[in-house]
Amino acid sequence: MTAPAVVLSRSGVLRLRDGHPWIFPDHIERGGGEQAGLVQLHGPADRARGWAVWNPRSRIPLRVVARGAGAPEPGPLWWQERLDAAIGARATSLAPGESACRWVHAEADGLPGLVVDRYEDIAVLQAGCEWADRLAPAVAEHLLAAHGVRGVLARHDGGFRRPEGLPEGVALLAGDVPHAVTWTSAGVRRTIDPWTGQKTGAYLDQRESQRLAPALLPGGRCLDAFCNDGGFALHLARAGREVVALDGSEGALAQLAANAEANGVAARIEPRKVNVFDHLRELTEQAARFDGIVLDPPALARRKGDLPQALRGYKELNLRALSLLAPGGRLLTCSCSFHIGPEEFLHMLRAAAADAGRDARIVEVRGAAACHPRRLAFPESAYLKVVLLEVTGSW
Length: 395
Prior knowledge:
This protein is an alpha/beta fold. 29% of the residues lie in helices and 31% in strands. The chain has three domains: 5-67, Roll (Archaeosine Trna-guanine Transglycosylase, Chain: A, domain 4), CATH 2.30.130.10; 78-181, RNA methyltransferase domain (HRMD) like (Transcription Regulator spoIIAA, 2-Layer Sandwich), CATH 3.30.750.80; 203-394, Vaccinia Virus protein VP39 (Rossmann fold, 3-Layer(aba) Sandwich), CATH 3.40.50. The relative contact order is 0.09.
């Protein structure tokens, strides 16, 4: 059966040529129909230009899967080859002692809207578009058959599917997935609940920065703000740091306490259930001092319209954190808001340092872990910004 065609405007052809995998309604002249599925892309002169998955009800109606006039039509199982290739690439990027990673990073791996995270022998899947949602059961069965997992869970909560008009919820897709899964990273053991934990159970995009945190931050007293279940705090405490860990979630702090006990570092971590914004202000008023601070808040700009308010929020957090650092102290500050670009984030940090009366140098700029590949023509895949600052003076 021949796939239907979608005719792109000239601007749509330029976007396709530039390599971005998303094509919006104003880039489309005609075609596609009411049925979601695979379509062939054409230019205004009706020349074939590639292939995409189509959903007329989505704010991103076209997600490109192949480019070029000569690109063959993707067959019904083309996704298996890309899935296997993505998983195979991670086998060489994991450090010794790592047992969790992102197996599939959606468009960055050529699989639109599909995210798969692995924790030991279970996989957690998220489908962010209609095509990935329709494919999810087959992906789950393939993971069981070909990649040695014992269970696959769909985490379709959290609101990310609403713009696509897809139902929300959590469901077992295949096999068995327990409520407690323990995985390791550089000797630190973490137990998560894949059914209820953040994202797919943990923030795997910070896995490498968490593992390197003891080398990035100085010894002494550290602060982990928005600590969740302790990804940074556990690594810092295992390296001998004393850590004050802040979060507003009682469940996350309970998991942190259990993980700290399991790793033998409970005596070095002080969990505090607080509003982090308010508590940082209180610590500043108390003239508290820390040698190292991790600042890893949730996304403050989920939509473009949130940008002005989000930048004010990030500035407030970083101003307080910089004010709390002892001379020579270091701040590892992060933003997972992809609407805030790297230059905007650095500009905000400059303003925060100026208002805090601190001279600071950039020691290192990092991004997401290697299992979250960043595609050059897809800046949305480089959403995580991690900047390491060192205070060199005050006024």
